[in-house]
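tool_log.txt
---
The assistant was asked to compare two proteins side by side. It first ran the structure predictor on the initial sequence, then on the second. Raw inputs and outputs are pasted verbatim so the downstream comparison step can read them without reformatting.
(1)
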Amino acid sequence: MSGYNRSKGKNIPKYLQETEVKQILERAEQSKKRDHLILLTLFRTGLRVSELVNLEKRDIRQQEGEIIVRQGKGNKDRIVPLEKELGHLLGYYMDDLTMQDRVFNLSKRTIRNIVKKHIEGLDLSLPTADISPHTFRHSYAVKVLKDGVNLRSLQKALGHSDLSTTERYLDIVADDVKEDFKAAEW
């Protein structure tokens, strides 16, 4: 199923398949470890690019397995789950930083350029012009829903104040389920 889905007249988010994200991550890892970590963080946390830009060392609580997103959209702090492997990678990367230092200390524009650099020339389900750091957020949401995370938990992790914003991802998952069942042999 393509990540480019505009069925039923609804505003369905554009996302990348997990295999496509892995392809991008592999390319980034071969090129520059920092770029790989940035893209991995976007995909495994669902952070907005503005939240990633403002992420400080003190916000990453490796022992608790969480990231505190301070003053996200709507000026509300929230907790985002941090899986162990990413926590270790971030911990190693931040080793020389003070608690108030920004983790990546990059602009939104630079992060957008990192995404563009690592998707260039790849055969992906979305047009290159439609892929941005926010696409990784959508891809995260689709992946965790497919993996069984409940909608309310996803809403909290993404920082959506209205559940209907998060519900948009259900249409994608439902379409993929239908597509998966087409392959079933009876």
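(2)
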Amino acid sequence: MTGLAPTAERRVAELMSWALETAEVATTCREARRMCAARAVHHLPVVEGGILVGIVCTCDLRGASADDQLGRRMRTPVVTIRPDAPTWDALGTMRQADVGALPVLYHGFLIGIVTAGDLERAGLASTRGHCALCGARHHVRGTPRGRRCVACWEIESGGKQ
């Protein structure tokens, strides 16, 4: 029999994006926003000297000063995954860590990224669910008041992050 393996048996390497945009720690938020928009991506691994040191999501850049450097906005430590890991492991890791993307490391080298969208397109369940207020399925995080998308969370909190 030919074709793709059932989703449960597939590996992260089959779903991840190999073409990867990264930014240096000193990159400004203005430049990071431009990079994300140009590539139509929501997650940007942050490197220093070629080594992964953090990750930013476009929601992490909201409200940031244009001249802020990514080193101040990035999330650390970075939750990563191996390319040979089963896709179900990626799904579980994203749910447990409440993240929307996992940089993929092979022997310590950044080789790609797998996102919640990649897993959903492959037929796995959503990693984050939906916003309890508006129903959005993108940029949803757990908050003290329940699951909220970034826009609803900013409205509720008055824009304070």
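---
observation on (2): The first helix runs from residue 12 to 15. The chain has two domains: 7-124, 128-161.
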